[in-house]
Amino acid sequence: MPDRILRAIGQQTIDHRGPDFAAVGQRALDGMKSIFRTRQNVFIFPSSGTGAWEAALVNTHSPGDRILMFETGHFAFMWGKLARRIGLNPEIIEGDWRGGADPDQIEDRLRADRAHGIRAVCVVHNETSTGSVSPISEIRKAMDAAGHPALLMVDTISGLASIDFQFDDWGVDVAVSGSQKGLMLPPGLSFNAVSDRAMETAKQASLPRSYWDWHDMAGPNKTGYFPYTPATNLLYGLNEAIDMLHEEGLDAVFDRHARNGAAARAAVRAWGLEVLCNRQGQESGVLTAVLMPEGHSADAFRAKTLELYDMSLGNGLSKVADRVFRIGHLGDFNDLMLMATLSGVEMGLANSGVPHTPGGAQAAMDILKANAA
Predict the structure, then answer these.
(1) Dmax (CA) of the chain
(2) How far apart are CA 155 and CA 59, in angstroms?
(3) Residue 237: its H or E element
(4) Distance CA 235, CA 241 (A)
(5) SS3 of residue 268 by DSSP
(6) CA 123/CA 135 separation, integer angstroms
(7) What phi, psi does 154 have (nearest 5°)?
(8) What is the rounded average pLDDT of the residues 55-65?
(9) Which is it for strands 118-124 and 151-155: parallel, antiparallel or unpaired?
(10) DSSP 8-class letter at 15
(11) Rounded to whole angstroms, how far apart are CA atoms 236 and 251?
């Protein structure tokens, strides 16, 4: 988290019903529209991203509704698990966890649904557990080609403000995000960007909801207020984060993440290791997941690297537990930070006895020098 954001969060808390708060709330709500690239509604909840998952589903569905979900990794799986718990009937297209959602498979499944019983298609934009990106605009085109009326719902918790996301232009109906990734904040805020079509759908949906109700939010939000106590100090930080993103320029932010992702993957391949995402063009600029050689523990390597170099690497989740480690390169992150990270990984591989070819950090440096902003 940048110092600017920490200082903003540290301001004195004000009365969230008082006259001064309206400017804070309105600035946050309008600012998040610019980050989602939408002119439609954005709602801000005091919660983790899991809450925003639930809000997206309960506002748009009734008990027993069918939804189509593509399992790109752990978080896509968990969103499906949540859907089942709240009374929905998710149909899962299984993936191999090595790439994003496949628009062709989604189109085929929707064409087969001639009665239009599927109410929504739910996709993870940037799968944090695998380092793969789903082609959201292509998925919308596939849905349109199938002539299917399902809503397009996208989890961009780790994608927003790190890689390109265009809510309006891509025809997304509901997007889910959180504060603790590209927005450079602590956990505690979550977001739903909501199309006018999804707002209309919410009027007929009958899953129980109270805290998550969009229509309860919409009225007070028009004047910068919230129907219940907001996370005031996190909103201070959010407004600072939005300013920082626009000062750099969103396209420059995306280019920086893409450059760091390309450099990280160059390092992995120079080490003779394998990037988990093996679909060209779907590799993430947010993080890189690395497969360990057969017979070597990713968790043992991570523990040794933490012990020796005080650097924490992401662990593998569920199906890839102890088989991968994850290198994060998102948010307030630059080329020199990446080089320090990759040097620590390379030293950790040597200290842990993991078979590799030295020189990965140099390969990444070559990429960064050639693409210096």
Answers:
(1) 62
(2) 15
(3) helix 232-248
(4) 10
(5) helix
(6) 10
(7) -130, 130
(8) 98
(9) parallel
(10) -
(11) 24
CB distance 30 to 235 below 8 Å: no
CA 339 – CA 208 distance, rounded (Å): 49
Stretch 185-196: mean pLDDT: 98
Identity at 162, one-letter amino acid code: S
Residue written as token pair 């948010």: 331
Which residues are paired to 66 by β-bridges? 89, 118
The two three-digit tokens of residue 3, written as one number: 């110092």
Q: 265 with 288: CB under 8 angstroms?
A: yes
> In sequence order, what are the beta bridge partners of 324?
291
- Give pLDDT tens digits for 154-188: 999 999 999 999 999 999 999 999 999 999 999 99
Beta strands in the chain (DSSP E): 41-46, 66-71, 89-94, 118-124, 126-127, 132-133, 151-155, 174-178, 189-194, 274-275, 287-291, 314-315, 324-328
pLDDT category at 373 given cuts 50, 70, 90 is low
Alpha carbon distances (Å) from 214 to 48, 247, 327 = 17, 31, 36
List the one residue out of 332, 331, 350, 329 whose CA is nearest residue 340. 329
Q: pLDDT per residue over 68-96, tens digit each?
A: 999 999 999 999 999 999 999 999 999 99
Query: Does residue 372 carry a pLDDT above 90?
Result: no
Q: Name the residue with tokens 């893409």.
A: 258
What are the residues facing 132 on neighbouring strands? 127, 283
Report residue 206 CA to chain centroid gap.
28
What mean pLDDT is predicted for residues 322-346?
A: 98
